[in-house]
Amino acid sequence: MHADQRKKLINELTDLIRGGNAHVTLDEALAGIPAHLRTVIPDNLPYSIWQLMEHIRIAQKDIVDFSISKDYKTLIWPDEYWPEPTDSVSDQQWEESVKEINDDQQRFFRLLQNENKDLFSPLPWGSGQNIVREAMLIADHNSYHLAEIVVARRLLGIWK
């Protein structure tokens, strides 16, 4: 792959992960959610906005950790991927979760930009996964759950 092709691919994958093309961004999905509604589970949905956001954080961190290190520790599905319901979430907990989502995306973007990494070679500690696949997995997973946050917001009457 030529350097200019690699750069274009990295830019496309980065934009895909950030969102905003065919789906809302994390910032858009979370903007203006009243604190008292973060943990409310809307009728006929299984999760609150907080649980969805935490699931995004946990799953994305898992994917990034797997992509970066052979010392990756597998999480137990579904117990370690989904937080339990809670009655309240502090502003500090909320902000720390959003920050970690953004920080882990930055960690992944640095991996993508590392010219010493082959984006298509299978990760030696995996079962055929490569960095491009993991980038698409992050984007796909996050967009799916961001859409669920939008649905929850609509049901709570707090979407545009």
TrEMBL record:
<feature type="domain" description="DinB-like">
    <location>
        <begin position="26"/>
        <end position="149"/>
    </location>
</feature>
<dbReference type="Pfam" id="PF12867">
    <property type="entry name" value="DinB_2"/>
</dbReference>
<protein>
    <recommendedName>
        <fullName>DinB-like domain-containing protein</fullName>
    </recommendedName>
</protein>
<dbReference type="InterPro" id="IPR034660">
    <property type="entry name" value="DinB/YfiT-like"/>
</dbReference>
<dbReference type="InterPro" id="IPR024775">
    <property type="entry name" value="DinB-like"/>
</dbReference>
